[in-house]
Amino acid sequence: MSRLNELRLISRVAQMYHIEGRRQAEIAEHLRLSQATVSRMLKRAEAEDIVRTSVIPPVGTYSELEGELRDKFKLPEAIVVECTEDRDGAIMARIGEAAAHLLEVTLSPGEIIGVSSWSQTIFKMVENIHPQKSAQAKYVVQTLGGMGDPSVQTHATQLTTRLARLTGAEPKLLPVQGVTTSREAKLLMQADPFVRETMDLFGSITLAIVGIGAVEPSELLARSGNIFSSRELADLAEAGAVGDISLRFFDKDGKPVKTPLDDRVIGLPLEDLTRVDRVIALAGGAKKTAAIAGALRVGVIGTLVTDKFTAQRLIDA
Question: Are residues 295 and 150 in the same domain?
């Protein structure tokens, strides 16, 4: 009987605290208990299963899918967004919105943001960001060169400068080709002091925002003029490449695929991402499922933002 009386009192303390919203000090005074006793009783209420914690995800959120992605790929965090259509345009828009919110609420003052300028999904993220007044970044660093089709290059430059403006940062552009004609041309371009200044910041990046590409180039990359030849793409496929992050390729197991093409890319090397505190990847769509799975196995991504259709494909694969 004494145990039952004890549990009854614990239940009353829990009711006052969790349901009636009273403070511990108020409960202690009302029941003539010490505050330390009230605190111990609240812990006992959980241990005795009198109080159970329930998390009920709102409609349109996918905590189960997120949990399965975290477990399967040993991924620190996953954000799975609602999307009514399994279509690239709709998927990119929804992922962009979610990524914009994530950046707004997690941005730290003085952050050095590295951003790949060849992702349409990252474009969508930037379109949805509100100007940051409290937590402002220091630099936004372009991590992959451009200089393809002038209209597309302008778009890439605008992405970096607009994100810098929205986050109160100084833009650091990479005004050279992302894919050079030869290794010698790459070395010559990297010797430019403006290029060197930007690339010297790669080691200081605290937050990298990346897209994930399939071996077949995206529409944006194809229009840029910065694409590999069909022979080079065939060589990549032969070497087992399934996708890329900033034109650094990897296979289905997440192992880097090294080919002579690596010597022609001006941008952040894949191995440098391992030294970045936080890497957020934005990607979705049926064509990218294998690429995303490979990218998650590289082991550099801290947070994946994707859609519910892609998440289910990744889990089922």
Answer: yes
